[in-house]
Design a protein that fits this description.
This is Holliday junction branch migration complex subunit RuvB. GO terms for molecular function: ATP binding; four-way junction DNA binding; four-way junction helicase activity; hydrolase activity. By secondary structure, this protein is an alpha/beta fold. Helices cover 42% and strands 12% of the residues. It has a six-stranded parallel sheet with strand order 1-3-4-7-2-8, covered by helices on one side. The N terminus and C terminus are likely disordered. The protein binds adenosine-5'-triphosphate.
Length: 370
């Protein structure tokens, strides 16, 4: 495997999660330094080991088997889905299943067409090129990629201005695996050049339980089924978060218990880290509590809500809200943010009369801020 060392740590750009999602959040979905160090050991190595995503697995299995039977390089693959759902892992599995080497890089690392030409021209026949955050590649690089994907050829421009010449360069057949959190951000000409496109969904708690039990086994941690279920329920549908919570619970079990992760140990450990039964952390709960306790469940404007929580508007909007919306706890409406009945129930509070009717609900006449 060949890691392109410019891959990580590139500046963020529009379309990427807010910086605070990467910083000291146990339930953040982006990889932190510790995740990167242990993830390699926890990655499933083949499709059989890969848990969940049944449809994607079945379809990919067919694509790869057929290519192997033809003795051909596999079609280009586009994987879309939230961070931490297994896109990098699947790209490595594709390479392993095709017995091919893999090169890993990312869109932000390729700012010039020349960067891409250098990578493409050094690929071996059949190699898998994993391009993470493909939607963040520069325009000239993207255009070079069109021809490379379709004709296995690039035009290298030598010189500048009227004297510039395009020198065609043949490439060995390769498989591009592109990953993106937002397939909708890809220009159609790029999207259309992928032979197989898969969207990865958030995982069911039962699938995350299997991820956690498998990881516990690899980390040599003793975990009971109920302990795994407790962690799975708080993992926000994301294997990366499940594995991270498992490591924190393991620490707690080692220091405060006899090393075994039971339901009680998992619940107590995650209580210490302020990750609640649905996977909400301190920030998520602060937003919900302000919405319910200060504004009667809304509607309330984002700016007002952010001031009440003491956070930047962007942090509330980009870090806390997406998960609250996904969980059906908060709704964004043209009149402002509204808590749903599930939010009142989750915080154990009683909605005021005529409140808590959810999006489009009646009786909520007050509008705080904008
Ligand atoms: N289906 C799965 N079964 C078991 N473990 C998984 C699965 N999917 C992901 N994981 C684990 O979750 C962690 C994160 O996965 P991975 O790095 O592949 O996510 P990603 O989607 O590429 O994230 P990013 O977009 O941030 O790069 C890895 O440690 C991997 O082992």
């Amino acid at each position: 495997m060949n890691w392109d060392d410019t891959t990580r740590g590139a500046p963020s750009a529009p379309g990427t999660p807010a910086a605070s999602d990467t910083e000291d959040r146990l339930v953040g979905s982006l990889a932190d330094g510790e995740d990167q160090a242990v993830e390699a050991a926890l990655r499933p190595k083949d499709l059989d080991e890969f848990i969940g995503q049944e449809k994607v697995r079945e379809q990919l299995d067919l694509v790869l088997r057929a290519a192997r039977a033809r003795g051909a390089t596999a079609d280009h693959v586009l994987l879309s889905g939230a961070p931490g759902l297994g896109k990098t892992t699947l790209s490595m599995i594709i390479a392993a299943e095709m017995a091919a080497p893999i090169r890993i890089t990312s869109g932000p690392a390729i700012q010039h067409a020349g960067d891409l030409a250098a990578i493409l021209s050094s690929l071996q026949e059949g190699e898998v090129l994993f391009l993470d955050e493909i939607h963040r590649m520069s325009r000239p690089a993207e255009e070079m990629l069109y021809m490379a994907m379709e004709d296995f050829r690039v035009d290298v421009i030598v010189g500048k201005g009227p004297g510039a010449t395009a020198i065609p360069l043949d490439l060995p057949p390769f498989t591009l695996v592109g990953a993106t959190t937002r397939a909708g951000l890809l220009p159609p000409p790029l999207r259309d050049r992928f032979g197989f496109t898969a969207h990865m969904e958030f995982y069911e708690p039962t699938e995350l339980e299997r991820v956690i039990r498998r990881s516990a086994h690899l980390l040599d941690v003793h975990i009971e089924a109920e302990g795994a279920a407790e962690i799975a329920g708080r993992s926000r549908g994301t294997p990366r978060i499940a594995n991270r919570l498992l490591r924190r619970v393991r620490d707690y079990a080692q220091v405060k218990a006899d090393g075994v992760i039971t339901r009680e140990v998992a619940a107590a450990a995650l209580g210490v880290y302020e990750v609640d039964t649905r996977g909400l952390d301190r920030l998520d709960r602060a937003v919900l509590e302000a919405l319910l306790k200060l504004f009667g469940g809304g509607p309330v404007g984002l700016s007002t809500l952010s001031v009440a929580v003491g956070e930047e508007r962007e942090t509330v909007e980009e870090v806390a809200e997406p998960f609250l919306v996904r969980e059906g706890l908060l709704a964004r409406t043209p009149r402002g943010r509204i808590a749903t009945p599930a939010a009142w129930a989750h915080l154990g509070l009683t909605p005021p009369p005529a409140a808590g009717a959810g999006p489009g609900g009646s009786g909520q006449q007050h509008l705080f801020g904008t």
